[in-house]
Amino acid sequence: MPNGKKTTIYDIAKEARSSASTVASVLNGTWQKRRIKKSTAEAIQKIAVKRAYSPNLQARGLRKSRSGLVGMIIPLLEYRFFSSLAEAFERAARAEQLYPVVVSTLRDPANEQATVRALISHNVEALFLAGATDPDTLSEICRRARVKHVNVDLPGSKAPSVISDNFQGAVRLTGAIVNRMRSLDPASSRQSISFIGGAPDYNTQQRLAGFRSCLDEAGFQVDPSWLQVSGYESYLAEAALRGVYAQLGKLPDGLFVNSTTAFEGVARFLQTLPLDEVRACAIGCFDWDLYIEFLNFPVIMVRQNVHGMIAEAYRILKGPRVPGAPIILVPTEMIATGKQSSDEDHIGHVAEQRASSIGAARTTKPRRSV
Amino acid sequence: MPNGKKTTIYDIAKEARSSASTVASVLNGTWQKRRIKKSTAEAIQKIAVKRAYSPNLQARGLRKSRSGLVGMIIPLLEYRFFSSLAEAFERAARAEQLYPVVVSTLRDPANEQATVRALISHNVEALFLAGATDPDTLSEICRRARVKHVNVDLPGSKAPSVISDNFQGAVRLTGAIVNRMRSLDPASSRQSISFIGGAPDYNTQQRLAGFRSCLDEAGFQVDPSWLQVSGYESYLAEAALRGVYAQLGKLPDGLFVNSTTAFEGVARFLQTLPLDEVRACAIGCFDWDLYIEFLNFPVIMVRQNVHGMIAEAYRILKGPRVPGAPIILVPTEMIATGKQSSDEDHIGHVAEQRASSIGAARTTKPRRSV
DNA sequence: GTGAAAGCGCTAACAC
DNA sequence: GTGTTAGCGCTTTCAC
Predict the structure, then answer these.
(1) Which of A58, A292, A339 is opposite residue B122, by nearest beta carbon?
(2) Bridge partners of B362?
(3) Do residues B226 and B192 lie in contact, with contact meaning Cβ atoms separated by under 8 Å?
(4) Lowest mean per-residue pLDDT among A45-59, A332-346, B230-244, B310-324
(5) Least packed by Cβ within 10 Å: which of A33, A86, A365, B133?
(6) CA distance A82 to chain B (A)
(7) Which pLDDT band holds residue B361 (cuts at 50, 70, 90)?
(8) Integer distance in angstroms from CA A238 to C1' D11?
(9) In chain B, what is the straight-line distance between the N-terminal and C-terminal CA atoms, in Å?
(10) Mind listing the pLDDT tens digit for each residue in B98-134?
(11) Is A69 helix (H, G, I), strand (E, B) or coil?
């Protein structure tokens, strides 16, 4: 470790009384192809280890005009769905021999654009735009820079998108809630069910549509006051549910909570009620969090297939350029949990499961109750 | 967008009938310093926008021998403490005009090393090693590559470390648990309290030491069977608690759960018990998760100050090289939650709270282990 | 089998 | 005020 700079192939070449090109090919693994003598190669490798050589990937990238990086932007990391998505993305990137760079953008369009530009400047091979607030502007930036990209979680109209089958997932979740409502109170004929949380984005629209579609089919008269698209923030969902409660004088018979964030607010409000009252309500949540399984009332959850989504997205990026902006739907999985949720038999009745290219979505069995 | 390649400063220079250096200085913001005419600058900027120019950061980095990247390795993203740490890291990086790259390593030493080497090869300016299983080997790799770095969450002996004040946090958490035990059952004289979860790593040792220290002071005879360092995995913690329960024929009077991962297993077991039994146990958890607040029994949690830790780490990296491997302790925060947790008055009695945050971080020698 | 040389896109010293 | 030039560390013909 002589001087104060990193060792380069030239340093090694000098010490090995060889040339930079020989050293380079030894050190990047192409030496067999170049028919370098094994002894030369070994000598060079030894020196490289001794001097703690590490290749300068910026130089290599510049020369080869490829970086080996693959980028993903994501709204935030502190939300289980997104952190799972990020982990799946990382894993898949490595399998593709790419180096993953995940950056969160806090749902800020300006931040999203700046981040995309930065990643492009770092010459990423491809870009995953997950949950972007304005995917089409980002697509435009990518297009002009000729960077392959794909939307994930929220669709755009200028690039392929891979998203959960929100409609089907909502149909099935709603069906499970309805079944549970009926088993909780078989006598009642006119029951109410609220949809809480979400923003006017594509996913919420699809989930709402699935919700309504299932209810229509089940013979419900959907009252507009049931639909509380309050925003994703927990306090908004909490306020919305409080409003519903005040209006009805009780909880609705069923509750479709749109996202675990909204669920936080819902849980906070439910905490203020007697447990029996809470247990008399059939509760479902679109999205999954482990801890929801430990609440003292049962919750049916929809879990999105992050691995499937990521796999599809990579498939699209690797395949030939597709025309238009197809939307690939990935089936979701339903999970029923919690105390007293002994209604296995009902789950999945209303909406039939579909198989998928990725692997069939499954309905898992509820955990053992007390 | 004429040809099929990205525009470079040469393309723009040609179109502007100017030179590459002029274009470069206009586009990287140093043109005022170079006294370039405003009109020239504007003309160049216009062309740059029109051609969707984006600087090649690999080339810039190569030339300036700095990348503007700052890296962090982290065990996994799907754990709330780590995802918070990653978010705080990103935020701080941006404030420092650096581009954050977070990579998870799944607690695999080989993966950690490979990732550190990869980040070094990308010429990161500095490296945050968070929760590394083998920080000293990584330090050695960094040292040989002359890359500044700092350990976070788990300390090493070859570089500065910024970690939570696990000892103090455990003392205070234990104190709060003891207070609650006493208020739940003021009569009893001989009570038991279990420590569940964790691995034989530095943090667990410190927490155990704090646990014992507090109990000693409070007059408890610590029984070895109370200490269940079962591993972090939830099922191990679950099994450990089940064992304790079987042995005692009931829950211990107090429970110190080491990490939210272990808590998952604990919660799963507690679910199988009658609620009254659970509520008769004073429960604390070292680490915080929002959903634990919504359980139907109160839990006192210790929340680590991720922003403080990250701020300290950046401070160290920016400051002059420090000799040795100091350990900076960042105070934790205690949060009491849940129904029936009206024992606020007790919290913090046993161990006094300290004015916290970054200012109060202090340097110590590593503590003795248990 | 191996070396010399050009060049990836950019910056910074030095010209003029 | 602006252009010329020499690299940053690497890969990749092409030459021998």
Answers:
(1) A58
(2) B329
(3) yes
(4) A332-346
(5) A33
(6) 9
(7) low
(8) 60
(9) 67
(10) 999 999 999 999 999 999 999 999 999 999 999 999 9
(11) strand
- Residues comprising chain B, all counted: 370
Between the CA of B25 and the C1' of C16, what is the distance in angstroms?
Answer: 19
Does the CB of A30 sit below 7 A from strand D?
yes
In this prediction, the residues of chain A whose per-residue pLDDT falls under 70 are 1-4, 338-370
Mean pLDDT in residue range B42-62: 95
Q: What is the pLDDT of residue A322?
A: 85
CA atoms of B150 and B135, how far apart (whole Å): 9
A61: helix, coil or strand?
Answer: helix
Region B13-33: mean pLDDT is 93
- The beta strand positions in B206-277, using DSSP E, are 227-228, 254-258
- pTM given for the model: 0.90
Helix ranges (DSSP H) in chain A: 9-16, 20-27, 38-50, 57-64, 80-95, 109-121, 135-144, 166-184, 202-217, 234-248, 260-270, 275-279, 306-318
| Token code pair at residue A97 | 């021999």
Contacts of B259 by beta carbon, 8 Å cutoff, 6+ apart: B197, B198, B232, B285, B286, B287
**∠ CA A140-A142-A148, rounded to 5°:** 125
What's the Å distance between residue B63 CA and nucleotide D16 C1'? 33
Of B55, B141, B145, the CB nearest to A121: B55
For A274-332, what is the HEC assignment? CHHHHHCCEEEEECCCHHHHHCCCCEEEEECCHHHHHHHHHHHHHCCCCCCCCEEEECC
Going A225 to A231 to A232 to A235, the CA torsion angle's sign is negative
Q: Which of A's residues 44-63 have CB atoms within 7 A of nucleic strand C?
A: 59, 62-63
Of B111, B81, B139, B260, the residue nearest A90 (C-alpha): B111
What pLDDT is attached to residue A364? 29
pLDDT band of B338, cuts 50, 70, 90: low
